[in-house]
Protein 1
Amino acid sequence: MINDNMITQIETLEEIEKSGDSRGELNRWVKEIENASNAEKKWRHEADEYFAIYKDEAEGQAFAQERYNIFWSNTQTLRPLVFSRLPHSNITRRFLSDDGIARIMSEMMERSVNYFLEDTNAEPVFNAVRDDFLIAGRGVARVILDPAEIITTKEKDEHGIEIEVDDIDNEAKTVRIEYVNWHDFRMSPAKAWKDVRWVAFRHQMTRAQLIEQFGKLGEQVNLDNNILSYLEKGDNNLENEDLLKVAEVWEIWDKDSHNVIFISKGYDKGVLSKEDDLYNLKNFFPTPKPLGSNSSPDSLLPIPLYRMYKSQAAELNAIDSRIKGLIQQIKFTGVYQSVVDDTDITSLLNGEDGVFTPMSFVGGASDIRQNIFTKPIGEIAVVIAQLNEQKARILQNIRDITGLSDIVRGTTIASETATAQKLKGDFAISRIQPLQHEMEVYVRDLIRLESELIVENFSVEELAEITGLKIIDFKKIEKKAMNNAKKLLEEALSLLNPEDPEIEQKKEQIIQQAQQGVAATLKPVGKALEGYAVTTEEAEQLQELMTSDLSRSYAVDVETDSTVRMDQQQEKSNRLEYVSAITNFSSSFFPLVQAGIVSPETFNQFLGFISKPFKVGRNLEESLLAPVEQEPQGPSIDEQNMAAESQRRDMELQLKAKEVDIKQQEVDIKKAEVLQKGAQFDDNLEFQDANKAADRQTRTSDAVIQDSTRIAVEAVRNSNLLGV
């Protein structure tokens, strides 16, 4: 058996090696874990107590208590404020340079991290870490690489002999973030995270898991033999209720030796396994500084939030219990003297409305009420009112300590002014922001570890398949295009007549066409490289940059979007600000470019200067920062085709214009004919009117002449009659 008191304190680790004990390293790590547990024993007992209060259980028991559970209420209020949604990585170039490789790597890392976060369902992990932090004061998670599985199949070779063939299943290869219960985490005592020498994670393994992990050694591990079972009551929280027994196995990451060591007290012959650094992480540990380690400036021990108002919560619980007890006492009860008849008491206290009964009381007092004594309910009500006032004061004290004002809880007083409500809201935000920020930084550090683990263990080709990156062998395509053009050129030149006097001009024309054909073939390839794509040479540079911790940290910055209630309005505002900046700049500078005062290259540089602080898409950034191309010496085939197409369209437009002119002329002729006919019609009308007027005048003249003649004849006739 292991001597638990073998190691107390030593000067150097070499003392264990010199002891000659084959179990020296096992004993060392057993003692390390025990010492670390003892250093945190007080806090761990406190955290167990707070979890019982949060779940409304008695300590160590699973039944409800009569409690005003303000701790549960405050925690439920803080949960969505501290963390509310799955974060997304925001990976950008650190110095906003024009480095295309860094730009591709940042996008590739961002896509791959976001994919693994969603694919491995990381949100419940962050939720569990947040809850441990708010209740116990510490939250822990770690990154894990699940390697590709090796599938062994049996096949027959060419001689018909059956052989085993190993095939790698890369689909099983993944990176994930795993929740670690605070009971199952230990680290060496230290005042700062940089001074922590080792961290350890506890696992509960069945016999089958032990054999799978450690081979034949797993068969020799004694189950149910735990290192910490006798140290802390309730510490071994992961009690296995399954039929299968389990062994406690500790996975220790030793920063000094860069080894990962597995031990179990159920195997007293030595360590189960000792391996070199598994992940090759920059800071070695697969976990960031535990959430809640910033509570005290001189220690990594957490300070649970509940500790700060525990006494107020206990007082609140006691007052609430007293109020409940007094409310039970507010009942209309009393006593009466035995000389009073029961019938009189029943008729007096329990009679129906408007019913009077004869009294048989014959006591010495003239008033029966002098013989009845009721419970003093009024005094009890006064005490309850005073207790309620004290309860309200205690609640306010707790809110002052926690910063959770009524406005955070969604309640307010209708008579309050808008300014008062704003002050309350600002105060609550200022108190909650440190918790939000600590959670946000922890999530960011986890994502940084995950991104580092991805680039250290995945090749560019694997990440290209995950993220959709195109790897284009530009030289191969160019060489193939040149060879095809060369064959066609030789074939075309062989068909020329050597005696043709224009043979040199035709040769030059054929060579130019071949060059234009190669350029036309490579043009779409170049266009593809402007997007999310790299050449094979760039892919090699990308692989080197990915696997270099120093170069990678210089090139990219790994952050996250807001993990606490993402402010979408701010994002919209940033985009509108960017569009406004580009619009104002273009409207001011473009006339200078047109006038020749500012060159297009200078305009492009200014545009890039304005765009770099903003996070825009790669394609847009490529377009904005693309250099101004010089005019080509001669038109390409595509340009010739476009010119011919444009010329054909111009001819069609001209023909259509002529057709329109002809139709317009026809319309004008018809219009002239109509106008002419109208004029003729008017002339006819005028002519007819003139003729009619003349006829009327002639007929009038004839009538006048006839009348004059008739008058003259009558006058002559009368004169003859008179004999004149």
Protein 2
Amino acid sequence: MAREEVILRVGGAAGDGIASTGESFAKICSRSGLHLLAYNSYQSVIRGGFIYLQLRAGRNKIFSHGNKVDFLIALNPVEFQRNIVDVGAGGAVLYNSDKIKPDEETIPKDVILCPLPVNEILKDIGKNPILQNTVALSALVQLLGLDLDVMKGVISDYFGKKKQSVMEINLQVCEAGYNYSQSNLPKFDFNLNPDYNLRRPVLTGNQALAFGSVLAGCKFYSAYPMTPASSILHWLTAHSKETGMVVKQAEDEISVINMAIGSSFAGARSMVGTSGGGFALMSEAIGLAGQTETPLVIINSMRGGPSTGLPTKTEQGDLFQAIGASQGDFPKVVVAPSTVEDCYYSVIEAFNLADQFQIPVIILSDLFLSEHMESIEDLDFNSKINRGEIITSDTSNGDYKRFKYTDNGVSPRAFPGTAGTIFQASSDEHDDYGNIISDVFTDPEIRTKIMLKRMRKMKFIQETLSAPKLEGSDNADLTVVSWGSNYNVVHEAIEILRTKNKNVNHLHIKYLIPLHKEIGEILSRSKDTLVVEGNYSGQLSKLISMETGFQINHTLFKYDGEPFYPEQIIDKVEGLI
């Protein structure tokens, strides 16, 4: 039977044009009505290093970037040899045979070589080393039976802002590579069933977070560039004029978050973004937002730690850091989106929660979720904005209590300049007016009362958040527990396991603080349990144990900097059942 999906890997070094080649193929797939998911595994050096982009595409929804590849485009001899081991049986390698001379003895017997003599193909067009990428991509388009005109459209869009001659050369190269492939390369049995009347939107998680913040009414974003959160700053900066958002890059993360707190205090919905090291610097100011009950959304796109750690690799190691952000107890929400679409909806929800309960809300993404490209369904642009209780003037003869004791812990909020609402908002503990109680006499009764007021919010926050639901049979032999970006890969693994008659269900947890009590109840009814986490210490499993008393039986941890593959989860589950 013809294959209905394809996995492509482009392997080379930084500076070889891997990202542009992968993004071009992603656009070709998108404009062919195909679903796709792409992951870029790159290093922190500007040029050189072991880099690859892997993209999986087909007519059905794609949940991971796959494992063994069908086609490898190798851009240099070293990456040819390094990546060929990941080509599956019957797969092929496209390469510039002028540069790469394979050692036949090292080639797996079931891998097909597809040499492209680039100099010969381009003899009537002109020599340029980077043109080998266009030759290989156009050859792949032919081998997959995709429309050459779609690729030409992508090329025209990409080079349209550059010199016309550059675009025309690439269009000629595109056709030359396609024609050579048609006449000289073997045939492959793929039927991706493209639909050229359908274009699927493609976003990264960071683009979804940025776009969602605009729809949520965010008016101030500040950040210091830190991989993998930097592209949020890039996107919002590029679109600041059309969105009306003030975007600031400050000298460090301490300045960044204090600017955002000041902006939010003045009445503008505000957000900051960073990774683990920058989040550590923000920690003290998060407590300031908690003490002054100032709404704020904080994105921590996690990478491997500690310290500088793995700047360009993924991990889920900052959960406890987010839970313990700043000193003392105060209400906060920690939420981990699971998909690109979920990034969009989660940031809108985060702003509403922050305003409604006057708290900091921490969004935990990670490098994989933040940076990978994925086709998505249409998004709902009719987001509802809930600013919570904001008073326009005080009618109680100037007796305004900013931190008034209330049943749900949420006090009437006023923006600076509102008549009759003068109050203090300091980092010190205070009474319901905002008057400091930590200098001359720390009144134990007031301290207890104001602490209880703030913490009462957590009960009502938890009631606002939807509880997690078990996916699959209630009577499964094994329950797999996950959080954050692992949702899709676990979902795909379980679907494959079901075709093998393995009775497995899935509990995915989005809201980490507060943690729903239903989680313990669901797991207590499970026959056996396995948690899948991208960290060394099993932070989610420990959190579940701390909050519910339930101890998960089995663990699958990964902390090598790369995301999970379906096969890793399948192998673990089959070893348990």
